[in-house]
Design a protein that fits this description.
Structural class: alpha/beta
Radius of gyration: 54 Å
CATH architecture of the largest domain: 3-Layer(aba) Sandwich
Helix content: 40-55%
Largest sheet: 7 strands, mixed
Number of helices: 14
CATH class of the largest domain: Alpha Beta
Length: 387
Amino acid sequence: MSESTRGAKWGSILLGGGLFVFVFIAWFVHNFERVERTVALPPIGEAAWNPLYLLKQTLHADGIKAESRPRFNQPVSALGPHDTLVLLDDPRYLNAARADELLGWVERGGHLVVRTPPGAQLSKHESLPLLDALGLEAMDQGECEKFQVPGEDEHVEFCGDRRFVFAEVEPELSWGNLRDGYVYARLKHGRGHVDVLADVDFLGNGRPALAEMPARDGLRDVPHQVLARQILAPNYGKGTVHLVYAVQMPSLWRTLVERGWPVWAPLLLALFGGLWASAQRFGPLQPAPAAARRSLLEHVRASGEHLYRYGKGALLYAAARQAFLARLRRRDPVAAALTGEAQAAALAERFGLPAARLQRALQVPSSRERRDFADRISLLMHMRNRL
């Protein structure tokens, strides 16, 4: 192939590739266009765990000193006479002594914002020290309350939240009625105020709509901003606003039981299954095994019969003869030292038996003398026992 032909081939390839790229770009530009889209991301940092983070930042922007903490673990004496304390969590965590300290601080000019206990049911015997001291009685959950702000759409608040009624106390401000209960009340206590609400979710951060969770307005909603400003009005701009978003954190064990069951329940079932699979199986009751009943003599006899059956009778005779001679040497050394007929005569005189029979008993029997085998061994054992 010449240089000109090779150059023409590569030129055609490059021209075809460039034409394909041009057509693809033209098709892409014709069918697609660049657009901007806002994607709501979950909160990060302090906003992820502090539901009152937006309220704190809003107060800072308005020149109000605000502090937030997860638990109300500071002494009440550290609160200033013109401070505001917002308790976001369940007031049942406050015992009687703590409630008395807080009301004493309110009498000196403090402002306390608290909610009614959350939950679907409330035990009749459950103690509510703070509400009892204020002369309030908690009720069941109620319907929504309309809250209209000029220039805004229709809005409702406190849907399905626990309401309350007054017991010999006159509020400065109230929202509700005696029949259905109240969702908000401002009580004068000494030189300070206590604001009681059915819920305080409107003070929270809120969140935009995510794929796995619906939207929550919180302070992003204008009616909530107006309501929050009215709630914080008594000491607004006079002191520090203390925001407590968890009066008392639940214990680790309670959290594990209530929220960790999707993990520990399968593990517990797996543990029980493993123990059941590896456990010992017990069948039906069986009688106890019979106790051993064979004596040593029976074992010896069985062993001898086995040896004799397999042609080892000479071993049995040798053992019996050696046992007899060993005892004879200890009891009658003179007769043991003799041999042959002399020994047989001495033994015949001692035992009163025929000398010929005794001499035959001391001789090793042949394999053909099977009939005399038992007689010779029995005679040797008889004489051994008489020594």
